[in-house]
Amino acid sequence: MKRFIAAALLVATPAFAQTPSPAPRATETAARPQTVEDACIFVAKSVLMVKELKVGVVQAFPDLTPPGARLTYSTRMDAGEGDITDEIECQFDTGTNPKQVTRFCMDSTCYASDSEDPEDRRRFEEVQALMQRLK
After folding, report:
1. How far apart are the first and last CA of the chain?
2. Which residues contact 33 (CB under 8 A, 6 or more apart)?
3. Taking the alpha carbons of 103, 106, 110, 116 in that order, is the dihedral positive or negative?
4. Average pLDDT, integer, range 84-89
5. What predicted TM-score, i.e. pTM, was given to this entire model?
6. Counting runs of H as helices and runs of E as strands, what totals does the chain give?
7. CA distance 70 to 100
């Protein structure tokens, strides 16, 4: 009984309450992207395995068939406007909300379910799996 009371007091103390908890994984806290812009940013972050991207120019085409977006980005958060030159292009299923990626291109390589290169096809399947895990 004494151990139970001591444990209860320990849990209730302010010092214990301020102890940082482990950071949640992105798939535990992120909401499913609702716009083609946000979905394309999610794809870029997933492929690059980064938490943040500095996004430059965004061109979104939600009304085209298939809907899609292109954007420039940098993994360096201190990048100047002229340094944000990496590009990604994404295409999504028509009529799906939340968005489901069907194809994306980075660094002159395109990734899709019908990619000839098994590694490119695998990267595509990984991104699709990550998008499915979002709430």
Report:
1. 41
2. 39, 41, 42, 98, 99, 134
3. negative
4. 97
5. 0.76
6. 5, 5
7. 16
As given in the structure block, the two tokens for residue 113 are 């379910």
Which residue shows structure tokens 């399947």?
125
The proportion of the chain whose per-residue pLDDT surpasses 90, expressed as a percent, equals 66
| Letter string b/e over residues 63-84, b meaning 16 or more CB atoms within 10 A of that residue's CB | eeeebbbbbbbbeeeebeeeeb
- Please say if the pLDDT value at position 28 is more than 90: no
Residues 89/70, Cβ–Cβ less than 8 Å: yes
CA distance 85 to 34: 25
Which DSSP category does 83 fall into? Answer: G
The pair of three-digit structure tokens given for residue 79, joined into one six-digit string: 């990048």
Specify the DSSP element, H or E, that contains 21. none
Can you tell me whether residue 101 is helix, strand or coil? strand
